[in-house]
Structure formats: C-alpha cells, structure tokens
C-alpha cells in the first residue's frame, strides 16, 4: 500500500464549491410523495416522525430476532427428541417427578389406565413472531406442539377426554424440559383464563434472550375431528357422566364454549396462514398492527381472560383487508386510523362478522346462530370457530368507547394525539369514576344456583363459576344501574402463572373480580327509581327485581307507582347511591354478601368534611357515634351553595341601593368560595358563639389575649366596578381618597336600607349578611392605567407595569374573570369542585401552602376537565384527584407549557404562538408555565411561585402519592388508610416549630382531627338569628407569624406550613446563605464572626443559628410551644 502523502508533498485541500443547481436540487418523486402524504394523512410532520420512532422502538430488532430464531431452533431439536414414556396409570401422579404436577385437577375423568407419551408430531412457530408483529419489551413466542397420534383417539371430543389428555401432555412436557440447560424456568399458565386450556411457559436461559417467554400450546392437526361435530349447537358433554348421577335425565344441552376450545387447538396453523396471506406484499400491515397493539396495551385491553387480544386485532385487519376497507398501498398509520374508525362504528354484540367466504358448506351455521350462544361474534376463515368466544360484552363496549375517543384525538389539531394514543397509559383506576372489587369468588357457586338456566352453561365451562356467572352479573348491574352509568367494565388481569410443582389453582382462586363504572353525572345521584304503575304485570316484575326496596308512592301528578328510594341528603351521599344499588342487587339475586364487596368511590370524602373529629367518616347507613356528630356529614357542597345564594342576594342589595353616587357596572366575587374551590367553604357564624375568646369593641369583636383563638371566619371578597365619570380625579392618591369616601357611603347605605351590619375602612367594607362576612371593595378601571404611568428621562409619559399596578389588575380584573370562568366549569361538571378541593388539600398537607398559589391549582384542575384526554371528564372527585397527581408527576414542565383553553377562546394559531414563545423564551419563564386566553405569554398565576426547587419537590410527592393511592384503590383491604398521602414526612426538615393548638384558628380542618368540632350550618338553628355584632374576621395568627418569619429570615431558610389547621411550621436552611461572607454593617443581622478568623484581617461572618432559633421563639411568644432542632439533618 502506498504511503500517505506528507504535508510537504501534497497541496492543501480546497473546499469544493457546489453549483447553484446542486444547492437547490428539486425533490425526488419519492420525497414529493412523502410530503404529500404527510399533508393529507398525518396531523404534522412531527406526528409522522413520532410514529416512525415508536414503531422502531417496539418492534424486535433484527439482531435480537436472529438470536431468538437460533434459540428456537435449538428448542425445536430438544422437543423433537424427547424420550417416550409409558405410563401404567395416568391418574397416578407417580409417573412424573415428585415436584411436577398436572396443570388441571379433575373431579372425574374418562382418561384412565395405560397411556404412552411420545415426542410431538410437529413443533411450529405460530403467532406474531413469524409475522414480525411482536412488540417489546416482554416477548411471548407461541409454539404449536402437535400431540402425537398415540395420544389421540376418535372419540376424544366427548366428556373432556381431549382436555384431560392435553393437560397430561403438558405435564409430560414440563417433566421432560425441567432442568434442561436451555430452560431457566418452567411454569404453567391458563390460556385466556380458561382452565380447560393450560399451557407450558418456558423462561429461556441466557442474558441475550432476556424477557423472552416461550409458550408451548399442545394442539391437534386441523382435521383431527370433524368440524360439524363441534358446532355451537352440538352437545359433547353427557350430563349423567358430568354429574355422576345415572338417574339424571340426559337432555344433551349444547356446549358452545367447550366445542370452541377444541376447535381453537385445531385451527392455530390455519390462522397463521390467514395472517400470512394478508401480510404478503402489504408493508403497512406490520406497522399498523404494531400501533394497534401499543394502543391496546396502554389501555390494558389485550391481556387476560375476556381480552381483545393482539391476535384478534390482527385477524380484524385481515378481515378489513378482505372487505376492501383497507388496501395494500396503505401505510401503517392509515391502517391504524381505518381500524379505529371501524371499531368505533361496529357492534359485534348484535351484528357479528366472519372471515369465511365459503358458502357451499351446508353444515355451516349462520352468524345469527352464533349470537344465540356467544356475547361477541367474530368468525374465523373456517366459519366454525368464534374468535371472540371468551370476550364479554363489557370488554367489547370498552374497546368501542376507546375507539371513539381515538377518533377525536386523531382529528384534534390542538391536541397531542400521539401522546394520548400511544404514550400515556390508561390504567383501570384512573379510567373509571368508581370501582369495586368482588373479593370472595367462591360465592359465585351460590350465584350459579340462584341465576336461572346456568346449569348447562356451568357444565359447558367445565365447572368454572367465574366465567359462567360473569356475563349474568354484568347484565344484572346494567339493568339495576340503568342510566346512572354510561359504561360498566371488568378489569382484565393478566393470565396467572404458577410453578409446575404447585397444586393447580381453581378459577375462583385467581384473584378478585374488579368492576369499573363510568358515571352519568346527570342521573348517577338520583335518589328515586320510579317504576311502573301499581297493579300491573310490570309492577310485579319491578317488585321481584328490587325486592323489599320496592314500595308504593304517590307522585305529584297523582299517579301511584312502584318506586325505590335511596338515601341521599348530601352530595357526598348521592355520589355513593350506585354502591347501594350494587350491594342490594348482588345480595338479592346473586347471594353475594355486601361484606365481601370493596367499593372505592368516597374514601377521600372525610378529607373534605369539617367534622374536626378523629372518628371514622360516617356512611349513609351508619348511626352517629354521639349527639354532636352529624349523621350525614357532607363534603362542603351544600355549604358552598348556601354561600352563593347569600352572595347573590348581597349583589341584588348592592345594585338596588338608592342614592349611591355612581352606577355599579358589575359586582363580581374573587374569593375561592365563589368559584367552588375553597377547601372548606365558610359556614354561617353567630357572634355570641365566640364566648370569652373575643371582646366587643363598639359593635365589632376583637380577639382577647391569653385566650384560645376565635374560630376562623374568612372574609368573602367582592369587587364592585363603578361607572366612568369625568369627575374622577387624574392622580392615584385622589382616586384612593374618593374610593374611601365611597366605602363609607356604601357602608352607611347598606346599614340603613338593608339593615346589615357593616364596618367601613379606607380599602374595603365588611358586611355581615346571614352569618357570612363579605368584604366589598370599590374599584375603578382607570386607576390601573394611572398606576402604570411613568416618565422617561426625556420627559415622555409611558405605561409600564409595576408591582402596584399588577397587584391591582390581578385583584380587580383578572381574579373576577377567573372566578366567573371556574364557576361556569362547576355548573357543567359537578365533580370539579370536589377535585380541586382535594388537590388543594393535598398540596397544603405537604406543607406547601405558602409556596404554591391556589389559583395555579384551580387552573391545573380546570385543564383536566377541559382537556381530559386520554380519558373523558372525571365523574368523581376521587378519580379527578388521581388524574391531578398524574398530571403533576408526568408532565414535562421544562419542555412543554400547559395551555388551559378557558371558554374555548383559543384558536389553533394561539396554540402555535404560545408554544413558539415558550420555546424561544424558556429560560425567562417560570418553572410552571400556565397559559390561558387572557394570559397567553406571561403565566401570571405562576409567575413567582412555585420556585424550581419547590416544583421538583411537588413532583416527587405527586409521583409517590399517585403510586400509593392507586395501589390502595386496586387493593382489597377495607381498613386501608386513605389519609396516608395527606400526612407529610417530617424527616426531611432541619427545624420544626411546634405551635399551641388552641391558638390555631383552623384546627378543625386538620387531616387527623384532634381539634374542636366545627358546628354545621345545617344542624344549628340558632345561626339564622340576626346579629348586631361583626365577628373577628380573617384572624389567623399563625399566618401572620409565618409572614414575619419569611420577611426576616427568608434569605436564610425556606418555611413550610399547612394552613388548614397545621400545628407546626418546618424549615430547611439555605446552604448558600451559610457560606462565609465579609463583614458588612447593613448585613450584620443574625450574623456572628466565624471562629478562627484572624483579627488582623477583615472578619468573616456566618449566620448565628442559635440566635436565629431563639428569635423564632421570641417572635412567636405565646404562639410557639417548642422548637425542635434536628442538627443531624443539617447540610450547611
């Protein structure tokens, strides 16, 4: 080889210049087609790129595929060389190794005596692997292991003979493969939760094929039995044999599910051929199915019994191709889109489909005949096998529901459809408004007896009470709940595996049945179930269905009808009416004890209850523990409605004042109570109730020192905008003096004309009306502009925002608008209030009250209701709160804004503008960026808080709380402590300042109530009496103390507090503030010379921690009980 040229021997390389034609080369035809397809098919080029990346991530890489193929070839050699084994008595388990058991236990069997086990007749790879539609990370490869002829006989289709032999062959395979160096572990599993079809699961040895599972399916050759003998209408189980009673009349009932289980084992290879023919010359087939599988997996619809499996989805694509709904020129995205559109509009529960094209077979049954035996019908290419044999109506309706949502996401330009469809998981607990668990499945044996005509079905399912009763249970619940729910679903649990050395489980041992309810908010809380008129056949049927709950009632129209009335005095009780319906019907018709039902729907209601007690939150059926406990404690909805009613009356009083100098153009509330977002809405107060905790100063009460703090009475703030007038002055001080005069005049007129107790100050008027204190402030829009006026050095007048103008604009313009908008959301969605109040209570419980503005929480929850994808709008506070935690913990706050489209005012161009501005100015924007129609670029509500480190802490807490709460909801323990996530961990903090509980005015709002019981407006009749005294308003010494601490020591530490009755303040030292600094007179507060510094040099100063802690006690003298110093936690 020639030596490389040296620097001296070769001239330097020159940069080549491209011609203009090369720089601006026209796109190729392929590139033009790609661009055209992107415009016509995809939402955007980004969507197309994301789709391609996703497909590349989930499909099996070529190198890994080669390793798996090599391993499968080795496994095939092992299987095809298994030694034969002759057994004298198959019912004797001694022919297996001691710790290998048969995967199914049979009470009786016709398979007895001698039997010879031989190597498989053939081993073939079936399923997704050969078609390259297997999805990562967990790979399941299916091998069809054909049982040898020696194990088969012509009459094996009768009385479970084939199933028994199949199970014995599984034991033979497990016995031979156990301990082989190619196999790391051998287990058993039921196919689709069907105990009649066990299979052998192999975990292969070696790190290179990690997460690969091989499923061995014992099967039959396609022509082993005559298919006409396995029609759904045929009977292949003899009742006398099954019952063991020869005196039972032999009626030959049809056995459709039993027959299908045999047909499925005869059709595995033909199904593979069907899919292979569909995939031939069809590049989009693979990509489309991969996308569809990811979509199903994210919704937990593809695994376990009754599932809409990836196999069924693949066969559906083949069906749509045969019907020319799809063609082989379509891309994977087009396949996905067309399949979703088809699923949204079809109904296999009433109008099934078939892949069979052969109409010459006279024995072939019609689709209508299949509907007589199966809930969902999709026939394979033979026309004899229903691919959806195990699927329930509930599963199919859930798939349709998700398909309808997917249609919306695909066509929504402002929505991140890719994230909603493929990236965001939709777990069961976050999907459904209420869920309940049926714990003890052994009760279904009693249910099988109570339901009519289930004896034949039970025999057809091989004695599986769960699969037999489940469709009837769903039917019963649908009839009883009616319009209260829009959907009932069953949680699909993945097929359970067990060791080959363990006794096989029974169907009722495989865990609870979990049901999910999507509530219809219009009817879910209805307390009355009106039935037919009395003395009619329909009335008798109504009585039989509802049992003792049915009663005769006379209605306002004069009719006398049967009816059922459920308890529901409060909104919290009404939300649980579905629980009463379910427990009553399951006990009456299915013999299922209510004690074995775990209903998850109102577990967080005590968090919002102002009981102030440590006793359990009463249920509608429970009796009060004592005379002071409200038997029906609500969660604040009734109190909020009462406040709004009084506020509306006050608005009428204000507008109706005679002689007021200017017209009030608007009266708008700005308090959280008036937008339904106050965690604990105020209740009416009576001045005399304060006793010795307050003294009278004129007609206004003031606190008394050395006495317990008066009860918390918040001021409900109202803004009155006055009309413009040429007489308004042009300078801010003069306007403020005019406003003070208006406040005095307003107080006087309200007192004289409306007989209300008022108290005027220069900034506002406090008004006592029906036990509520309203703080009315007069506003004039011109004041904001005057505050913004400033002059440049050249003397030019300009308008610039400043602290005063921004605060006034926020209080008098932005807050009223926000309050009005959120009030409207509550009118549309009744669960909004409960959700946002739970969210606020949780944030405060994490001691972040003073770090996260409550308006940001209001907006985040509003976002969940306005843009709920990938769900529908939350129908209960519990699931809404769960989604709030998920939004906090999963949203990429660094890279994406949260755009809240209030009143649907934002257009597509606004979304682009917000995202572009966010991308270009990210470093200058707050860590949590919230955009609204009136605040698209500045994120006013989160401009100052939360800080970056607080947001990180909030996200960590949300992630852990989401995990804990989800686990509790899906668990079965009726004694689960749902308040756990509302108790903050204190081991993180450096100092804990403990407060005297009696000086905490909101102590009745604590999570674990130890404070005084709070009186309820609904039970205290004296509260309606007129009062001539104004109570102590907005007095919270803890908040005042906290503000002083932050003002004095905010540069040294971060302070944390729960404003809802917290009895301690915690702090974390700021490590950077404890670095040595040169002595400066103006910065010498709370500092001391650093030990060891030389007197000849400038002294270095560090914070004096002991003095600072002593200052905490001095500032809080009387309020502070003790200060706990945790020096072992300090990092300073």
TrEMBL record:
UniProt cross-references to Pfam families, sorted A to Z: Nrap (PF03813), Nrap_D2 (PF17403), Nrap_D3 (PF17404), Nrap_D4 (PF17405), Nrap_D5 (PF17406), Nrap_D6 (PF17407)
Gene3D superfamilies tied to this protein: 1.10.1410.10, 3.30.70.3030
Biased segments, Polar residues type: 1015-1025
Region described as Disordered: 610-638, 1004-1025
Cell membrane found in the keyword field: no
Cellular compartments annotated: Nucleus, Nucleolus
Listed GO MF terms: RNA binding
GO cellular component, one term: small-subunit processome
One example of a Gene Ontology biological process annotation: rRNA processing
Sorted UniProt keywords: Nucleus, RNA-binding
All residue ranges annotated as the Nrap protein domain in the record: 141-279, 285-424, 429-590, 633-827, 829-984, 987-1123
InterPro entries named among the record's database cross-references: NOL6/Upt22 (IPR005554), Nrap_D1 (IPR035082), Nrap_D2 (IPR035367), Nrap_D3 (IPR035368), Nrap_D4 (IPR035369), Nrap_D5 (IPR035370), Nrap_D6 (IPR035371)
Main localization (coarse): nucleus
Claim: Protein biosynthesis is one of the keywords in the record: no
UniProt similarity note: Belongs to the NRAP family.
Function: Part of the small subunit (SSU) processome, first precursor of the small eukaryotic ribosomal subunit. During the assembly of the SSU processome in the nucleolus, many ribosome biogenesis factors, an RNA chaperone and ribosomal proteins associate with the nascent pre-rRNA and work in concert to generate RNA folding, modifications, rearrangements and cleavage as well as targeted degradation of pre-ribosomal RNA by the RNA exosome.
Name of the molecule in the record: Nucleolar protein 6
Organism for this UniProt entry: Patiria miniata
């Amino acid at each position: 080889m020639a030596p490389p040229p040296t620097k001296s021997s070769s001239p330097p390389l020159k940069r080549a210049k491209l011609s203009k034609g090369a720089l601006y080369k026209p796109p190729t035809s392929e590139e033009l087609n790609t661009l055209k397809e992107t415009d016509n098919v995809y939402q955007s080029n980004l969507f197309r790129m994301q789709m391609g990346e996703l497909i590349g991530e989930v499909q099996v890489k070529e190198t890994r595929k080669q390793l798996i193929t090599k391993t499968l070839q080795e496994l095939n050699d092992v299987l095809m060389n298994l030694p034969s084994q002759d057994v004298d008595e198959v019912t004797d388990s001694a022919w297996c190794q001691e710790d290998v058991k048969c995967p199914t236990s049979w009470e009786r069997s016709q398979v007895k005596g001698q039997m010879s086990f031989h190597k498989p007749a053939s081993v073939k790879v079936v399923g997704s692997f050969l078609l390259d539609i297997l999805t990562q990370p967990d790979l399941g490869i299916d091998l069809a292991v054909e049982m040898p002829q020696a194990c088969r006989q012509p009459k094996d289709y009768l009385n479970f003979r084939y199933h028994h032999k199949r199970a014995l062959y599984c034991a033979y395979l497990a016995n031979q493969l156990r301990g082989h160096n190619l196999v790391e572990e051998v287990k058993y599993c039921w196919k689709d939760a069907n105990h009649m079809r066990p299979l052998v699961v192999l975990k292969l040895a070696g790190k290179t094929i990690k997460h690969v599972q091989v499923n061995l399916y014992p099967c039959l050759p396609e022509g082993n039995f005559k298919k006409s003998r396995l029609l759904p209408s045929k009977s292949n189980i003899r009742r006398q044999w099954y019952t063991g009673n020869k005196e039972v009349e032999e009626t030959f009932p049809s056995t459709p599910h039993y027959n299908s289980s045999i047909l499925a084992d005869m059709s595995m290879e033909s199904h593979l051929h069907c899919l292979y023919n569909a995939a031939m010359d069809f590049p989009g087939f693979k990509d489309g199915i991969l996308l569809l599988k990811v979509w199903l997996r994210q919704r937990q619809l593809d695994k376990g019994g009754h599932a809409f499996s990836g196999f069924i989805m693949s066969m559906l694509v083949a069906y749509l191709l045969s019907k020319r709904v799809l063609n082989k020129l379509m891309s994977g995205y087009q396949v996905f889109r067309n399949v979703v559109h088809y699923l949204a509009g079809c109904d296999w529960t009433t109008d099934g489909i078939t892949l069979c094209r052969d109409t010459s077979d006279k024995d072939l049954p019609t689709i209508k005949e299949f509907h007589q035996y199966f809930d969902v019908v999709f026939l394979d290419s033979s026309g004899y096998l229903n691919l959806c044999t195990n699927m329930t109506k509930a599963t199919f309706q859930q798939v349709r529901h998700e398909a309808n949502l997917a249609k919306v996401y695909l066509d929504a330009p402002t929505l991140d459809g890719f994230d909603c469809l493929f990236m965001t998981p939709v777990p069961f607990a976050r999907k459904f408004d209420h869920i309940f668990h049926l714990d003890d499945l052994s009760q279904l044996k009693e249910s099988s007896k109570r339901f009519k005509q289930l004896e034949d079905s039970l025999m057809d399912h091989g004695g599986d009470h769960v699969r037999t009763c489940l469709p009837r249970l769903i039917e019963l619940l649908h009839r009883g709940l009616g319009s209260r729910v829009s959907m009932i679903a069953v949680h699909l649990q993945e097929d359970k595996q067990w060791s080959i050395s363990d006794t096989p489980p029974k169907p009722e041992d495989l865990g609870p049945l979990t049901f999910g309810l999507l509530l219809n908010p219009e009817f879910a809380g209805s307390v009355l179930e009106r039935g037919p008129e009395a003395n009619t056949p329909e009335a008798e049927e109504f009585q039989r269905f509802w049992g003792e709950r049915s009663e005769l009632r006379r209605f306002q129209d004069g009719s006398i009808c049967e009816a059922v009335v459920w308890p529901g005095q409060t909104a919290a009780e009404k939300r649980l009416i579905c629980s009463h319906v379910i427990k009553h019907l399951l006990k009456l018709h299915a013999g299922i004890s209510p004690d074995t039902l775990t209903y998850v729907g109102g577990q967080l209601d005590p968090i919002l209850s102002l009981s102030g007690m440590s006793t359990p939150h009463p249920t509608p059926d429970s009796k009060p523990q004592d005379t002071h406990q409200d038997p029906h404690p609500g969660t604040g909805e009734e109190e909020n409605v009462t406040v709004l009613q009084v506020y509306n009356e006050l608005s009428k009083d204000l507008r109706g004042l005679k002689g007021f100098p200017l017209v009030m153009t608007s009266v708008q509330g700005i308090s959280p109570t008036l937008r339904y977002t106050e965690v604990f809405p105020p209740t009416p107060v009576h001045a005399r109730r304060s006793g010795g905790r307050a003294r009278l100063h004129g007609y206004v009460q003031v606190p008394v020192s050395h006495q317990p703090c008066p009860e918390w009475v918040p001021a409900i703030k109202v803004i009155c905008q006055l009309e413009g007038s040429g007489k308004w002055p042009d300078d801010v001080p003069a306007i403020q003096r005019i406003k003070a005069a208006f406040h005095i005049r307003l107080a006087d007129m309200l007192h004289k004309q409306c007989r209300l107790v008022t108290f005027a100050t220069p900034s506002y008027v406090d008004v006592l009306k029906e036990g509520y204190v309203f703080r009315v402030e007069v506003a004039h829009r011109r004041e904001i502009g005057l505050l913004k006026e400033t002059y440049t050095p050249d003397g030019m007048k300009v308008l610039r925002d400043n602290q005063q103008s921004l605060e006034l604009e926020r209080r008098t313009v932005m807050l009223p608008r926000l309050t009005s908008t959120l009030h409207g959301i509550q009118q549309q969605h009744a669960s909004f209030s409960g959700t946002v109040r739970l969210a606020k209570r949780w944030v405060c419980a994490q001691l972040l009250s003073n770090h996260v503005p409550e308006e940001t929480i209001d907006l985040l929850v509003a976002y969940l209701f306005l843009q709920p994808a990938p769900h529908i709008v939350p129908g209960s506070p519990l699931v809404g709160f769960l989604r709030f935690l998920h939004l906090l913990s999963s949203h990429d706050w660094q890279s994406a804004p949260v755009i809240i489209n209030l009143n649907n005012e934002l257009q597509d161009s606004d979304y682009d503008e917000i995202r572009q501005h966010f991308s270009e100015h990210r470093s200058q924007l707050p860590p949590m960026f919230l955009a609204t129609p009136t605040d698209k670029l500045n994120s006013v509500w989160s401009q100052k808080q939360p800080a970056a480190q607080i947001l990180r802490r909030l996200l960590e807490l949300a992630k852990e709380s989401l995990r804990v709460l989800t686990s509790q909801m899906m668990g079965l323990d009726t004694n689960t402590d749902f308040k756990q996530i509302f108790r903050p961990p204190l081991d993180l903090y450096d100092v804990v300042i403990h407060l005297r509980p009696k000086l905490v005015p909101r102590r009745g709002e604590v999570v674990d109530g130890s404070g005084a019981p709070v009186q309820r407006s609904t039970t205290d009749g004296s509260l309606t009496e007129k009062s001539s005294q104004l109570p102590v308003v907005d007095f919270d010494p803890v908040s005042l103390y906290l503000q002083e601490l932050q003002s004095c020591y905010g540069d040294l530490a971060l302070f944390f507090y729960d404003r809802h009755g917290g009895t301690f303040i915690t702090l974390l030292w700021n490590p950077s503030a404890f670095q040595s600094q040169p002595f400066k007179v103006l910065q010498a507060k709370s500092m001391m010379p650093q030990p060891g510094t030389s007197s000849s040099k400038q002294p270095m100063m560090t914070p004096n921690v002991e003095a600072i802690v002593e200052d905490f006690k001095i500032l809080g003298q009387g309020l502070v009980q003790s200060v706990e110093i945790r020096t072992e936690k300090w990092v300073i």
